[in-house]
């Protein structure tokens, strides 16, 4: 949630439903450079928080597509301060490539006095230090389609042309009721608003479970953008959405199909190796003081189940299509032990 959303939440929420703001910086990095930002190896830095579901989409795509050498990664402290996302995990609290302490400095370089919030994911142009885009809906689609010259050998096609209509349709529903639905439930300030959002979350999850009962992935028989987008919410479900956001009709671990589907993806290289449960829990429970004033971070849930067999391979499917899984996580990008099961 960006700062302006949070402000809206503190004022008009009793009467108005939670509304996610649109990304303000929507330039695209493309093969032909039509917005002034051509794809180029080493030119851009992807700034994320591993806590953030929208940013995590980009971290997963980057791994699956093998864009690690092309786009470097900056991981912000999961707990923002009053000046928002900061690089306190790095030596001297500065991002070593951009040389800045706060992501907001790259926003300022792009547009002085921008009144909106600073959000992740963000792509920053390294030579100028300027923010290029914070348009999380577009970044992964562009990684999949515009950056193809720089994909690794064996990279999967995450947004296959012949499946785009189906992917767009399913991701629209997943966005509305699941990705953003949990936030609508979590930040509701009235009983009715909460109940409507929470009911929609579970109604949609049950429909998705039906769809996934007999097919391994959401669209076609390979991993696509649609799976990445559902995964980033499911992997956070029991850790933060069930308790902190009150989406508690059932836990992910209690839904046989979705729990197996989420474990299958978690155990696929490029998914689970990007997830930091410690960052996820500290961010949600410590930052949203409106809904958790004590800032206490719960000890649970038990994470060991994420590594148990899922048996989804019995449904067939070819995770990477004609491609191959990504190689090991780069040195310096491994999730610390405290964030893993
Ligand atoms: N609403 C964001 C989408 C991404 C987003 O909400 N990211 C969150 C983290 S999960 C964020 O950076 N929020 C700003 C903040 O919490 O200060 C946008 O407008 O681009």
UniProtKB/TrEMBL annotation:
InterPro entries: Glutathione-S-Trfase_C-like, Glutathione-S-Trfase_C_sf, Glutathione_S-Trfase, GST_Omega-like_C, GST_Omega/GSH, Thioredoxin-like_sf. Pfam families: GST_C_2 (PF13410). Keywords: Oxidoreductase. GO terms for molecular function: oxidoreductase activity. Residues 314-341 are annotated as: Disordered. Its EC number is 1.8.5.-. This is Glutathione S-transferase family protein.
């Amino acid at each position: 949630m960006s700062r302006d959303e949070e402000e809206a939440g503190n004022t008009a929420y009793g009467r108005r439903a939670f509304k996610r703001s649109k990304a303000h910086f929507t330039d695209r990095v493309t093969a032909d450079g039509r917005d002034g930002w051509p794809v180029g190896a080493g030119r851009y830095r992807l700034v994320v928080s591993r806590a953030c579901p929208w940013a995590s989409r980009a971290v997963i795509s980057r791994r699956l597509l093998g864009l690690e050498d092309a786009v470097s990664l900056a991981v912000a402290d999961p707990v923002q301060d009053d000046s928002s996302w900061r690089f306190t995990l790095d030596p001297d609290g500065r991002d070593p490539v951009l040389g800045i302490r706060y992501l907001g400095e790259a926003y300022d370089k792009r547009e002085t006095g921008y009144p909106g919030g600073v959000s992740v994911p963000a792509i920053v142009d390294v030579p100028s230090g300027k923010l290029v885009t914070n348009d999380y809906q577009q970044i992964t689609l562009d990684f999949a389609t515009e950056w193809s010259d720089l994909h690794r050998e064996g990279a999967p096609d995450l947004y296959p042309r012949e499946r785009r209509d189906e992917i767009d349709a399913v991701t629209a529903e997943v966005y509305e009721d699941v990705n953003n639905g949990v936030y609508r439930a979590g930040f509701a300030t009235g009983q009715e608003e909460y109940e409507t959002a929470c009911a929609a979350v579970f109604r949609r999850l049950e429909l998705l479970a039906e769809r996934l009962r007999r097919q391994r992935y959401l669209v076609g028989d390979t991993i696509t953008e649609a799976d990445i987008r559902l995964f980033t919410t499911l992997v956070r479900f029991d850790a933060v959405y069930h308790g902190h956001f009150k989406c508690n009709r059932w836990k992910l671990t209690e839904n046989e199909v979705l729990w197996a589907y989420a474990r299958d993806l978690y155990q696929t290289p490029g998914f689970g190796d990007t997830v930091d449960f410690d960052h996820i829990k500290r961010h949600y429970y410590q930052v949203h003081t409106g809904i958790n004033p004590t800032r206490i971070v719960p000890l649970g849930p038990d994470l060991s189940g994420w590594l148990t067999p899922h048996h989804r391979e019995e449904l067939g499917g070819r995770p990477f299509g004609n491609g191959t899984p990504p190689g090991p996580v780069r040195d310096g990008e491994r999730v610390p032990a405290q964030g893993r099961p």
